[in-house]
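Usage example:
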Amino acid sequence: MLEKLISIIAEQLHVEETEIKPETDFKADLSADSLDLFELVMALEEEYNVEIPNEDLEQLTTVNAVVDYLKKKGIEA
Amino acid sequence: MKTEICSLLGIEYPIFQGGMAWVAEHSLASAVSNAGGLGILAAANAPVEVVREEIRKTRELTDKPFGVNIMLLSPYAQEIARLVIEENVPVVTTGAGNPGPYMEDWKAAGIKVIPVVASVALAKRMERAGADAVIAEGCESGGHIGENTTMVLVPQIVDAVSVPVIAAGGIGDGRGFAAAMMLGAKGVQMGTRFLVAKECVIHENYKQQVLKAKDIDSAVTGRTTGHPVRTLRNRMTRTYQQMEKEGKSFEELESLTIGSLRKAVVEGDVVNGSMMAGQIAGMVKKEQTCREMIEEIMQEAEALLGNR
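Running the assembly step on the lines above writes:
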């Protein structure tokens, strides 16, 4: 299942899937800026059919953080 | 000419004056509002008491609607977010971040919320969070900029959201206003032209540099640090760009720009100061009152648009 998440991140942030590990930090490791993160969140919402409110964006810093966040929403990434 | 943004905000003309840090204070904002546009105070990094004072002074000078621009990276952003509710500020524009956490409280207080956005995804999210309109700002603007131009950004955001879109970046006269309408915008926001307004309190030296600027006198520093800023070219921008080429550290680059906007605005240091201005500075040639500017722009635009 993690493969799907990794492929979304790779596509949205224009990086290779091999660069993405569970502990990868979007900003620090993949040089994502705030606009990139908005693109990523929009893609996650679409793929997992979930609404991610703006207040929650700050939590979504790493791949693991996204997995945990989705899990809390009852979604297995 | 009226658009839906005029009825939404209770203003006569769909022209906003950008919330320029250190520049957009009560004298300029009240003059723009009195002339029928939307004057906007810049909260920038100012402490809450300073902004409160600015709001009150603006109210003494105008009974028309005005706005406050909240720079969300400000250390005081949270306090300012409460202040605009306490002071019954009618309109809030936001920059440099995600106003999500404050949106509900502002809406509950009846404030019209209009975030500045630089991408389609951000515009959609702001609409979903309850924004009353969005300002689509292209990289022709002065100050902190994104990557897309106004020509490219505005129609894509117009297609993506159903709230009114205000075009910003590179607009300085009636032709620019009319072009923005053609792209689907319901209003424009201008900063650079208002820099040389008679009511604008920036140092005379800075004004003269804007008036003298040619088409190619605009420079962007900070692309390498991920925080690009557009200003007029001077010794500071040349040194900065040279240091960027040499791969100097973020801290070294930062030391060049700390306090540099204040240097330009307050001290009139046009050599080392950061004279934030948009690319349109090359076309800004007349010092006028805000009323003269707004009326001239509207007349030009109406002639071009045939009073649509």
